[in-house]
Specification:
This protein has about 230 residues and is an alpha+beta fold. It has one domain. Helices cover about 15% and strands about 45% of the residues. It contains two helices and 16 strands. The strands form two sheets. It has a five-stranded antiparallel barrel. Strand 4 and strand 5 form a beta hairpin. The relative contact order is 0.23.
Length: about 230
């Protein structure tokens, strides 16, 4: 994990001083499973899903429920349920049938990104199943695969995974399980940048929605300021 954090610092510095190239050679770094937030680097933005049912094409707002740009979340098809239900907010993607689905393709049209974090719950293949497998694949440029992460986890366990681009940006990430997911949820993204015609990718500013606890503290602080001003006037 220390090695991953060092890599993250180098990549963020490169993004700050030099626009990353969408056509650069990208090395994929994978993380997981983590029972907490062990696959996060601290620079991610939450993706707030738009509620939809029985769909093959979902949307998510980055940073807040109406934040931009929009993330596109497309059903990966396959032999399982191809239609999905998305719950509103920093929430869950589930199969519409209530059984399982093969996975999703994630893009931000017109934009690249360097990091995707998410939680999964894998479908058990049998009652005695102890581990299940799935893959995470990053793409850059003209749908060029940068690498494939072969991941395993306990079935029905909510755990965190991530994929991070070193040396460039993704324009698509595919998450796929042959035996299916019960759900994918809590998607986060970082390093979002606008793709340019010359192959560069210009970093964009994303405004995150304040956490409910922060809003409460702000409210209490404002009330305290008002009360203090009233006492002074009195």
């Amino acid at each position: 994990m220390k090695r991953l954090l060092i890599t993250s610092t180098i990549v963020c510095g490169a993004l700050w001083f030099h626009p990353p190239s969408a056509h650069a050679v990208v090395t994929d770094v994978f993380c997981g499973p983590s029972s907490g937030q062990g696959c996060e680097f601290g620079d991610e933005h939450k993706v707030f899903l738009q509620a939809q049912t029985n769909t093959m094409h979902g949307l998510g707002n980055i940073g807040s429920q109406d934040g931009l740009p929009l993330m596109h979340i497309d059903s990966d098809g396959g032999t399982l349920d191809t239609f999905l239900d998305l719950k509103n907010g920093f929430a869950t993607i589930k199969p519409h049938s209530g059984v399982s689905f093969n996975g999703v393709d994630i893009t931000i049209p017109g934009f690249g990104f360097t990091d995707l974090v998410f939680d999964v719950q894998l479908t058990p293949s049998s009652k005695k199943s102890t581990t299940e497998a799935f893959t995470i694949e990053g793409f850059s440029g003209a749908h060029i695969s940068d690498g494939l992460g072969n991941e395993t986890d306990k079935p029905d366990a909510d755990t965190e995974f991530s994929i991070r681009a070193v040396g460039g940006v993704f324009d698509e990430v595919n998450i796929l399980a042959a035996l299916g997911f019960d759900e994918i949820k809590h998607i986060e993204v970082s390093g979002v940048c606008a793709l340019l015609a010359n192959g560069d990718c210009t970093p964009v500013v994303i405004i995150d929605a304040p956490e409910p606890a922060s809003i409460a503290l702000l409210g209490f602080g404002l009330l305290g300021t008002i009360a203090f001003a009233r006492r002074r006037r009195a």
